[in-house]
Design goal:
Length: 312
């Protein structure tokens, strides 16, 4: 059951994202949030990819943080480390945006979602670090397991974390629950496949944690703003858990999205789940499909695009 207070604080459009302190539940403006985060080493903003409310909040927070602490680095899940050179060439003015998108293998929603943050960084000489693991390597780990890394050329392997599959308590259980699997399955082959899929997830998280630490090493005294899918950060699991395990002295703030629910007070539920230090409420996105057959074909097409990766 919702209350009048809940309704007053609910997002009105897909661009709205009311912010709350996760402990007190108090509403906050972007400027108030940035002020509280002024001295934080790493700020991780979880997102639901492609949601306008999340990306507008990220852009506004980036600018507000810069006003208080211009020494900033933007790290992004949305670019893989093997395309760091493409990102650098764009920031230095050597290439144009379409060249960045094509050469840097940018996500399909780059212009609509991430252009504002990259352009702000470019105009203010803020370093941008491609934080994710190379896509082909992630896919091959998902197919063949951890041993695939042993087949990589030495220079490629050296770009990845020394402990690429480090784990943190509770993350595996959450991951398996999210993909609809339990600890044990009836099929040994299926269980092995799920294990490799989880290793691919860990490779992403470990790489992002390592790249954030690398950003801090390369730019001492800077504040890191990291953009990532919320699964990699909420409840301080995934990338955040690994980051804190590797560098416990760092101060890390987690900002997590919560979908507005018509059936229950979404903010209260998220606070109980400890999703983040700060929460922002966003309106649900429209369903992609209502025809299950069309949805299945679309999913097959999406996965099929990566089927040609050579893992030999």
């Amino acid at each position: 059951m919702t209350t009048s207070t809940d309704n007053a604080l609910a997002p009105v459009t897909l661009y709205d994202a009311p912010i709350f302190h996760a402990v007190t539940g108090a509403p906050m403006s972007v400027d108030q949030l940035a002020e509280q985060l002024r001295d934080t080493d790493v700020i991780v903003v979880g997102e639901y990819h492609g949601h306008q409310g999340a990306h507008l909040l990220q852009a506004r927070l980036q600018a507000a943080l810069y006003q208080r602490r211009p020494a900033q680095v933007l790290t992004m899940e949305q670019f893989t480390l093997d395309h760091q050179g493409d990102v650098d060439r764009y920031l230095s003015g050597e290439t144009g945006e379409t060249e960045l998108i094509e050469d840097g293998d940018a996500w399909e929603n780059y212009r609509a979602s991430y252009r504002p943050m990259v352009e702000f960084a470019r105009r203010h000489d803020i370093p941008v670090m491609a934080a994710n693991a190379p896509a082909d390597i992630v896919r091959c780990v998902g197919r063949k397991g951890a041993g695939h890394l042993d087949t990589l050329p030495a220079d490629v392997r050296q770009q990845l974390p020394r402990a690429p599959f480090q784990d943190t308590p509770g993350y595996r259980e959450k991951f398996l629950q999210a993909i609809g699997q339990s600890h044990r399955t009836d099929s040994e082959a299926l269980d092995a496949r799920m294990h490799n899929t989880y290793l691919a997830q860990l490779l992403r998280d470990n790489t992002m944690a390592a790249r954030i630490l690398q950003a801090l090493e390369q730019h001492p005294g800077h504040q890191v703003l990291h953009l990532t899918g919320t699964f990699h950060s909420e409840e301080r699991l995934g990338t955040v858990g690994l980051l804190e395990a590797r560098a416990p002295a760092l101060s890390v703030a987690v900002i997590s999205p919560v979908f507005r629910s018509d059936d229950e007070p979404a903010l209260a539920a998220a606070r109980q789940q400890n999703k983040g230090d700060y929460l922002y409420i966003i309106a649900p996105l429209p369903p992609e499909f209502r025809d299950s057959e069309r949805e299945m074909k679309a999913m097959q097409a999406r996965f099929g695009r990566s089927a040609g990766t050579d893992c030999s």
